[in-house]
# Entry
Amino acid sequence: MADSAGVEVKPGATVQAPPQAASAGSEASRQRVVSPEYMFFEAPRERAFITGSEAAKEAIRRANVDIAISYPITPQSETMQQVGALWAEGYVKEYYRGEEEFGVMSAIAGASRSGARSLTATAGPGLMRGMEVVASWPGGRMPLVLLIMCRVINAPLSIQPDNAELAYLLNSGNIIFHAENQQDFFDYSLKAFIISEKPEVTLPVAVAVDGFFVTHARGYVMLPPSDIKLTPRDPYHEAIPAMDNENPPARISRDAPIQKSNFISYHVHASWQQEVWAAVERSRKYIDKYMGGLVEIVNPDAETIIVASGSAVSQSREAVRQAEEDLGERIGLIKVRSLRPFPTRELREACKNAKRILVPEFNCVGWLHREVCTALYGYSNAEIIPGPRVFGGISLPTEMILQYIFPDKKFAF
Amino acid sequence: MKRRINIRMSGLGGQGVVTSAHIMAMAASKEDKFAISNPFFGAEKRMAPAESYVRIGPEKIFDRGELVYPDVVMVFHPQVITMGKSYTMPFYSGIKKNGIVIINDDIELLTDEEKEDLAKMNVLVYYVPATKMALDIAGTELSTNMAMIGSVAGLTNVIGMEALDLALQDRFGKKYVASGGTATLDEAIKKKFAKKEMLLQKNLDTIKVAFDQATDYAKSKNYIPAVMS
# Structure
């Protein structure tokens, strides 16, 4: 194992925090607290050539995380192994491996409710295993960050990137961002903590990224210095105050509606979930402020527009460039940064003159195509083409995207 | 360089296929070129098929993942061809016109049909005894990937020796965080050499010999890699 993997524990010995964590002179202890605005926009940045896993590590180093809990699964393991190294260096206060994902997602919920800045991460089947608990987080109003390194969930078994799992998460009330590359994974992970903990949001934020293509590949990432970290979580200014010796658990858990009459239970549930989804919408202004909006638009005036999220955006950018350079055709591209809240208004405005819309995806179910159709129903006359799609983990060749854009021409296959 | 080059590396687990892509990408970065490297192994185990991909170009590269349509295919082990230990069949599937195939062996491995296929696409097939080179120069077959890197750099001139030297120092000269399997292999290769400086030097020597041999070959055949112009 790499020499940065953590501390060695001998049989019989009690597990203790490594000496670095407590030592006053460590680099971690010298980190200066800065405002989110300074961290995101003002701090000088230097270029690094690192993997997506390392980008996540660098975000967590600067995020002032109190506790990280996870269970290893490819391709997430590499990131959380490095979070272990951060713990050993004192950048993360608590860190442990849960028993499996159901336990992990439950434990991190407890950590969040106690007021700690909480992080977990999983991939594909791990997300599906933890889904029961993940779906209950938003109703529990638990600010925390879940990193998802997307991986095949359906049979035949595979560890490769395919993001069908996000289809299951979309309607759970969690805020969901989809990172395109290593830079996004760094930025979104860091910003997710701040958005998650805003009083009028107070919700978990999932940052998804396509495994391997981003997590195990190197790319350029502009990093602020490592000697600064975000302001700590302030759990007493959130929609539900943290649970401690003076603040009892939120009423929803201490006085469960299931113990009441059905009618009270229905009313409580309805108002509670309406409030959860309203809170999802209220995160928009922070996504606009910190992430530059729910979408990025390239060539807005084009008649043919590609709508994509995650790695499919990168493949599409290349196809857009090839169409322009080799064929002299301008193709539009809308990158969806936030899946929840979904950029319904933004898409209606951006697609009002479009004639054809393509939705390339890295999964067989076409969840983004459905989302786009729902958003544009009644607002656009464009033909919304379901594809191109690849599944099982293969990359989407730019030639395949070009073939969908120009069906009359012949590309490499 | 005028155009981007897409390289697919096919080999077996433990041969340093993933490391090669990382070194190539880091070397390109040293020359202020743009690069993206991508590993694509299945289980991390010895002798199982392993593939990695590197894209190097003069402008920012967006696309990622496996290269379905590569310009260059590098075969790190004869079994990729003879036993079909490849992610694609045939191993050169999707190769672009005027492409290059580099094979680690000194005996002919292709069938007549395969040769015909590649000739139709005007693909250059270049054999290099990379493992023998590694054993002769570095004293260990673990340096096979170095000879492969030297060969592709020499043939295409996509990156120079100086940048490769710097990338090698980055990868093996300082602390490097990798997966458990890769870390074990790193330890194994470090044990083969008395000192870290020796490891770096011997590996660099291996790259250099392969680089020079490929450069000489390109010169003698008047070969200009059309994939990049």
